[in-house]
Design brief:
By secondary structure, the protein is mostly helical. It has 2 domains: about 80 residues, no CATH class; about 230 residues, MetI-like fold. It is built from 16 helices and 4 strands. The strands form 2 sheets. It has a two-stranded antiparallel ribbon with strand order 1-2. The protein has a two-stranded antiparallel sheet with strand order 3-4. The longest helix has 28 residues. It is a multi-pass membrane protein.
């Protein structure tokens, strides 16, 4: 509780402000909205924040029978072992390369698709295309992996049949170290490009049509309208989504890699997530792989913080 005095016509008026009481009254008057928020809050608390406590085993020689409280503390020993492990640099390089390829080729995809769909005037055609490009997002990688295995099969796959018709030798896409990353990046774009375009389509719907009308009056063609009106209007959304994407720059996608890769492409396809599964779960090296996962999370946090700061310097809002 705080007291405030206001001088008016030589008379002091004193009144008290009760911020806590007002806050409680606000929450009480909007209890239904807070009730709707509760499942989402509980989800993040239970599945995102509570498991963070388990990260302490990265600093222990964790024993499943002794538990967290009974396991011996070893400090930074697992981090030292991680940096001295030759396999770690190989999987870190694979993770970084695949993630960068996905960012370079996959991030602009939804923007381009949204702009193209926004220009379609035939609503039946537009909705048909939207349905087709959205559909893969709702299919699991187990299903899509089976489709890719059949489509890319060197003996019966439609892709290699077309290559044979053109006089090209069949390519073993999923067992080739030269082609495996290309398949990973291309299939990820195919699966997510339609879903990612939804946000941009919503942003495009909010652009004032008078801006385009004024541009047409000034003689601007479609390309100039996109460059000078559409893209600048989308810049805030693009920066925000780019920042969020950077936070997962080392999250390549465990399910996709696990379904498609094999021992022949470990050299180029083994990433942090699959390495953590093989070493941490199958070999029971829980503390070591927790240290690897914690390192990945710290890198993501640093990247997001740096790019968010840079975005603010360029005049964008950022995410905090």
């Amino acid at each position: 509780m705080s007291a405030i005095q206001i001088a008016e016509n030589g008379t002091n008026h004193k009144f008290t402000v009760k911020p806590k009481r007002k806050r409680f009254q606000f929450i009480r008057s909007h209890w239904d909205l807070y009730l709707i928020m509760l499942p989402g809050i509980l989800y993040f608390v239970i599945y995102k924040y509570v498991p963070m406590w388990g990260a302490v085993i990265a600093f222990q020689d964790y024993n499943v029978f002794k538990g967290i409280w009974g396991s011996e503390w070893v400090g930074l020993a697992h981090f030292k072992a991680m940096f001295l492990n030759e396999d770690f640099y190989k999987i870190f390089r694979n993770t970084l390369l695949i993630s960068i390829y996905k960012l370079l080729w996959g991030f602009p995809g939804p923007i381009i698709l949204a702009i193209m769909l926004n220009e379609v005037r035939n609503m039946l055609y537009k909705r048909s295309i939207q349905t087709l490009v959205y559909l893969p997002h709702f299919l699991s990688w187990i299903i899509l992996g089976g489709i890719l295995v059949n489509v890319l099969s060197p003996s019966s796959g439609i892709v290699n049949k077309l290559l044979e018709a053109l006089g090209v030798e069949p390519i073993f896409f999923l067992t080739s170290t030269e082609w495996f990353r290309t398949v990973i990046v291309a299939s990820d774009i195919w699966k997510e490009v339609g879903w990612g375009a939804i946000v941009y389509l919503a942003a495009l719907a909010g652009i004032d049509p008078q801006l385009y009308e004024a541009a047409i009056m000034d003689g601007a063609n479609k390309w100039k309208q996109i460059i000078h009106i559409t893209l600048p209007s989308l810049m805030g959304v693009i920066v925000t989504l780019f920042l969020l994407r950077l936070g997962h720059v080392l999250d390549v996608g465990f399910e996709q890699i696990f379904v498609l890769y094999n021992s022949l492409v470990y050299e180029v396809g083994d990433v942090i997530e699959t390495y953590v599964y093989r070493v941490g779960i199958q070999q029971a090296k829980f503390s070591f792989t927790t240290a690897v996962g914690l390192f990945k999370a710290v890198i993501g946090l640093i990247l997001v913080s740096l790019v968010n700061k840079g975005a603010k310097k360029l005049g964008q809002e950022g995410i905090w």
